[in-house]
Amino acid sequence: MRLLIISDTHIPRRARGLPAEVGAEVERADAVVHAGDWVDLASLEDLQARARRLVAVYGNNDGPELRARLPEVARATLEGVRLAVVHETGQAKGRERRCAERFGDADALVFGHSHIPWDTTAPNGLRLLNPGSPTDRRRQPHHTYMTATAADGRLSDVRLHRIGLD
Protein backbone atom coordinates (compact mmCIF):
# COMPACT_ATOMS: atom_id res chain seq x y z
CA MET A 1 0.00 0.00 0.00
CA ARG A 2 1.53 3.30 -1.13
CA LEU A 3 1.17 6.17 1.36
CA LEU A 4 1.42 9.91 0.82
CA ILE A 5 2.20 11.73 4.06
CA ILE A 6 1.62 15.49 4.29
CA SER A 7 0.96 18.15 6.89
CA ASP A 8 0.68 21.89 7.38
CA THR A 9 -0.74 22.72 3.97
CA HIS A 10 -2.15 26.08 5.17
CA ILE A 11 -4.35 26.54 2.09
CA PRO A 12 -5.18 29.26 1.00
CA ARG A 13 -2.93 31.29 3.34
CA ARG A 14 0.40 29.89 2.08
CA ALA A 15 -0.63 28.50 -1.31
CA ARG A 16 -3.65 28.40 -3.60
CA GLY A 17 -3.54 24.64 -3.62
CA LEU A 18 -1.26 21.64 -3.34
CA PRO A 19 1.79 21.71 -5.60
CA ALA A 20 1.29 19.68 -8.81
CA GLU A 21 3.90 17.15 -7.66
CA VAL A 22 1.91 16.45 -4.50
CA GLY A 23 -1.35 16.31 -6.47
CA ALA A 24 0.17 13.63 -8.67
CA GLU A 25 1.17 11.68 -5.54
CA VAL A 26 -2.44 11.86 -4.32
CA GLU A 27 -3.48 10.05 -7.49
CA ARG A 28 -0.80 7.34 -7.01
CA ALA A 29 -1.38 6.79 -3.29
CA ASP A 30 -3.58 4.10 -1.84
CA ALA A 31 -3.93 6.26 1.28
CA VAL A 32 -3.19 9.90 2.09
CA VAL A 33 -2.20 10.80 5.66
CA HIS A 34 -2.58 14.49 6.63
CA ALA A 35 -1.36 15.67 10.05
CA GLY A 36 -3.39 18.88 10.26
CA ASP A 37 -3.29 22.62 9.68
CA TRP A 38 -5.46 22.56 6.60
CA VAL A 39 -6.84 26.06 7.38
CA ASP A 40 -9.57 25.82 4.70
CA LEU A 41 -12.49 23.39 4.65
CA ALA A 42 -12.38 23.36 0.83
CA SER A 43 -8.89 21.81 0.90
CA LEU A 44 -10.18 18.96 3.09
CA GLU A 45 -13.15 18.38 0.80
CA ASP A 46 -10.91 18.42 -2.28
CA LEU A 47 -8.54 15.85 -0.79
CA GLN A 48 -11.44 13.68 0.41
CA ALA A 49 -12.79 13.64 -3.14
CA ARG A 50 -9.42 12.79 -4.73
CA ALA A 51 -7.85 10.36 -2.23
CA ARG A 52 -8.71 6.67 -2.25
CA ARG A 53 -8.46 6.76 1.53
CA LEU A 54 -7.76 9.68 3.86
CA VAL A 55 -6.48 9.45 7.43
CA ALA A 56 -6.41 12.97 8.86
CA VAL A 57 -6.57 15.22 11.92
CA TYR A 58 -7.09 18.90 12.62
CA GLY A 59 -4.28 21.22 13.65
CA ASN A 60 -3.96 24.32 15.80
CA ASN A 61 -4.75 26.63 12.84
CA ASP A 62 -7.95 24.79 11.94
CA GLY A 63 -11.22 26.41 12.91
CA PRO A 64 -14.57 24.99 14.06
CA GLU A 65 -15.64 23.65 10.64
CA LEU A 66 -12.55 21.48 10.33
CA ARG A 67 -12.60 20.47 13.99
CA ALA A 68 -16.19 19.31 13.56
CA ARG A 69 -15.14 17.01 10.71
CA LEU A 70 -11.74 15.75 11.90
CA PRO A 71 -10.43 14.22 15.14
CA GLU A 72 -7.51 15.48 17.20
CA VAL A 73 -5.96 11.99 16.97
CA ALA A 74 -6.63 9.50 14.17
CA ARG A 75 -5.76 5.82 14.14
CA ALA A 76 -5.83 3.37 11.27
CA THR A 77 -4.36 0.00 10.45
CA LEU A 78 -2.93 0.00 6.94
CA GLU A 79 -1.75 -3.40 5.66
CA GLY A 80 -1.04 -4.42 9.24
CA VAL A 81 0.79 -1.19 10.19
CA ARG A 82 -0.83 0.45 13.22
CA LEU A 83 -0.72 4.16 12.44
CA ALA A 84 -1.49 7.10 14.72
CA VAL A 85 -1.75 10.69 13.51
CA VAL A 86 -1.68 13.88 15.60
CA HIS A 87 -0.77 17.47 14.80
CA GLU A 88 1.37 18.50 17.78
CA THR A 89 3.84 16.48 19.85
CA GLY A 90 5.54 19.27 21.81
CA GLN A 91 9.19 20.25 21.82
CA ALA A 92 11.81 18.10 20.10
CA LYS A 93 13.64 17.30 23.34
CA GLY A 94 12.10 14.16 24.81
CA ARG A 95 9.73 13.66 21.86
CA GLU A 96 10.49 9.96 21.37
CA ARG A 97 9.87 9.16 25.05
CA ARG A 98 6.64 11.20 25.27
CA CYS A 99 5.25 9.78 22.06
CA ALA A 100 6.19 6.21 22.97
CA GLU A 101 4.23 6.63 26.21
CA ARG A 102 1.20 8.20 24.53
CA PHE A 103 1.16 6.09 21.34
CA GLY A 104 2.78 2.87 22.54
CA ASP A 105 0.18 0.75 20.78
CA ALA A 106 1.12 2.17 17.34
CA ASP A 107 3.88 1.17 14.94
CA ALA A 108 4.21 4.65 13.47
CA LEU A 109 3.16 8.16 14.45
CA VAL A 110 2.71 10.90 11.85
CA PHE A 111 2.75 14.45 13.20
CA GLY A 112 3.17 18.01 11.96
CA HIS A 113 3.12 21.51 13.42
CA SER A 114 6.83 22.38 13.28
CA HIS A 115 7.17 22.21 9.48
CA ILE A 116 10.50 20.48 10.19
CA PRO A 117 10.93 17.03 8.60
CA TRP A 118 11.55 14.34 11.21
CA ASP A 119 12.18 10.60 11.01
CA THR A 120 13.28 8.83 14.18
CA THR A 121 12.47 5.66 16.06
CA ALA A 122 11.70 5.57 19.78
CA PRO A 123 13.32 2.86 21.95
CA ASN A 124 10.03 0.91 21.92
CA GLY A 125 10.13 0.77 18.10
CA LEU A 126 7.59 3.55 17.42
CA ARG A 127 8.57 5.34 14.19
CA LEU A 128 7.98 9.10 14.34
CA LEU A 129 7.45 10.90 11.03
CA ASN A 130 6.93 14.58 10.25
CA PRO A 131 6.74 15.31 6.51
CA GLY A 132 7.40 19.04 6.85
CA SER A 133 5.15 21.17 4.65
CA PRO A 134 4.55 21.13 0.89
CA THR A 135 3.42 24.78 0.92
CA ASP A 136 5.04 26.61 3.87
CA ARG A 137 8.69 25.76 4.38
CA ARG A 138 9.24 28.38 7.10
CA ARG A 139 12.93 28.18 8.04
CA GLN A 140 13.52 24.98 6.07
CA PRO A 141 15.42 25.07 2.76
CA HIS A 142 12.69 23.20 0.84
CA HIS A 143 8.99 22.43 0.74
CA THR A 144 8.63 18.72 1.57
CA TYR A 145 6.36 15.69 1.85
CA MET A 146 6.88 11.98 2.46
CA THR A 147 5.93 8.71 0.81
CA ALA A 148 6.08 5.23 2.31
CA THR A 149 4.93 1.68 1.76
CA ALA A 150 2.82 -0.30 4.23
CA ALA A 151 2.90 -4.07 3.74
CA ASP A 152 2.81 -7.16 5.91
CA GLY A 153 2.76 -5.12 9.13
CA ARG A 154 5.87 -3.13 8.18
CA LEU A 155 6.41 0.46 7.10
CA SER A 156 9.17 0.64 4.51
CA ASP A 157 10.53 2.81 1.73
CA VAL A 158 9.97 5.95 3.83
CA ARG A 159 11.23 8.81 1.71
CA LEU A 160 11.35 12.57 2.21
CA HIS A 161 10.74 14.44 -1.05
CA ARG A 162 11.91 17.98 -1.66
CA ILE A 163 9.45 19.63 -4.01
CA GLY A 164 10.91 20.51 -7.36
CA LEU A 165 14.15 18.64 -6.66
CA ASP A 166 13.12 14.97 -6.94
From TrEMBL:
EC number: 3.1.4.-
Main enzyme class: hydrolase
Pfam families with a match to the protein in the record: Metallophos_2 (PF12850)
Family matches, as InterPro entries: Calcineurin-like_PHP_lpxH, Metallo-depent_PP-like, Phosphodiesterase_MJ0936/Vps29
Cofactor entry: a divalent metal cation
Keyword set, alphabetical order: Metal-binding
Source organism superkingdom: Bacteria
Record-annotated Calcineurin-like phosphoesterase domain positions: 1-151
Matching PANTHER family: VACUOLAR SORTING PROTEIN VPS29
Stated family: Belongs to the metallophosphoesterase superfamily. YfcE family.
Descriptive protein name: Phosphoesterase
